[in-house]
Design brief:
The complex is a heterodimer. Chain A is of the alpha+beta class. In chain A, 25% of the residues lie in helices and 53% in strands. Chain A has one helix spanning 2-32, and strands at residues 41-53, 56-66, 70-80, 83-93, 99-110, 117-124. In chain A, the strands form 2 sheets. Chain A has a 3-stranded antiparallel sheet with strand order 1-2-5, with no helix packed on it. The radius of gyration of chain A is 24 Å and the shape is elongated. Chain A starts with a helix and ends with a strand. Chain B is rod-shaped and about 110 Å long. A 4-stranded mixed sheet of chain B has the order 2-8-5-6, with no helix packed on it. Chain B is α+β, with helices and mostly antiparallel strands. Classes of the chains: A alpha+beta, B alpha+beta. At the A-B interface, α1, β1, β2 and β6 of A face α1, β1, β2 and β3 of B.
Chain lengths: 125, 146
């Protein structure tokens, strides 16, 4: 009976240690770029241009530079004292090339007394 | 304790019933915690520079476009487009402030613009250059100064 209990305890400890070691090494490998199947990217939003129609902001042009070719989703949220509006773009960005994309806002944002603030979020899909 | 059992190895049977599930639970939870930590670290490290903020000023003269000048991961300056009334003329000061969350730089230039011009472009320099990462934000201001 004692041998069975000790055996069980040993088995559980070995299994758990293996799981912890595997998960930690996987995490470190991903962060360090040691795993070939994990993608890393450095994104730079290097320009934002407003295109107004009269007093309405409907399209925002965003210039991006990435170091990893892949499919990205770019979300722009423009806001001012009158409200906010968002729009998204999904497509391929090529590493090392400055690319300007047009993001159409879901609704036109009227120009108010304050200027526009743009929040640009980039996700690698 | 039953006779003949070595005291150092003796574990009461009722303790075993409690210890085994508790150990299994503790080890399972610690494994899950380690794995979730590695997953969250992976998500943070996947894309550097995922978000940026650009803020443009209000007033009669307004910034419509800012484009950063880069050298590797460093921002060396910026180009800004200012929009003004076609009938106005005079000296205009354009300022661009870049911040990476840890430090910031300001670039400023004053230029004369005549009547008939609605938009003009200026370039400013950040000296010394500033790292783009980790939390880039840019603000621009254009105003008539005389």
């Amino acid at each position: 009976m004692r041998a069975l209990v000790l055996g069980l305890l040993m088995a559980i400890m070995i299994f758990s240690t293996a799981v912890i070691a595997a998960s930690l090494s996987a995490g470190v490998g991903r962060i360090a770029g040691g795993s070939a199947d994990v993608r890393h990217a450095k994104v730079k939003v290097i320009g934002v241009r407003d295109e107004l129609t009269g007093v309405n902001l409907k399209t925002v042009y965003v210039t991006l530079l990435v170091d990893f070719t892949g499919t990205y989703q770019v979300t722009v949220t423009a806001s001012n004292d009158l409200g906010s509006a968002s729009g998204s773009w999904t497509g391929t960005l090529t590493a090392g090339q400055e690319q300007t994309i047009a993001v159409t806002l879901s609704q036109a944002l009227k120009e108010g007394n304050a200027g526009f603030t743009h929040s640009v979020e980039v996700a690698l899909l | 304790m039953p006779p003949g059992k070595p005291p150092i190895f003796y574990i009461p049977r009722r303790w075993i019933r409690m210890i085994i599930p508790l150990m299994a639970l503790a080890l399972t939870l610690s494994s899950l915690a380690a794995y979730s930590t590695s997953l969250s670290l992976q998500a943070e490290g996947l894309v550097l520079g995922r978000s940026a903020t650009y803020s443009y000023d209000a007033g009669n003269e307004r910034i419509r476009d800012i484009r950063l000048a880069l050298s590797g991961d460093y921002v060396t300056g910026a180009q800004a487009v200012c929009e003004k009334f076609v009938s106005d003329y005079g000296n205009y000061t354009v300022s661009v402030i870049f911040s990476n969350g840890a430090e910031s730089r300001i670039g400023q230039v004053t230029v004369y613009q005549p009547k008939g011009v609605t938009t003009f472009t200026v370039s400013v320099t950040f000296n010394p250059p500033i790292s783009y990462y980790p939390s880039p934000s840019v603000s621009g201001d254009c105003r008539k100064v005389g």
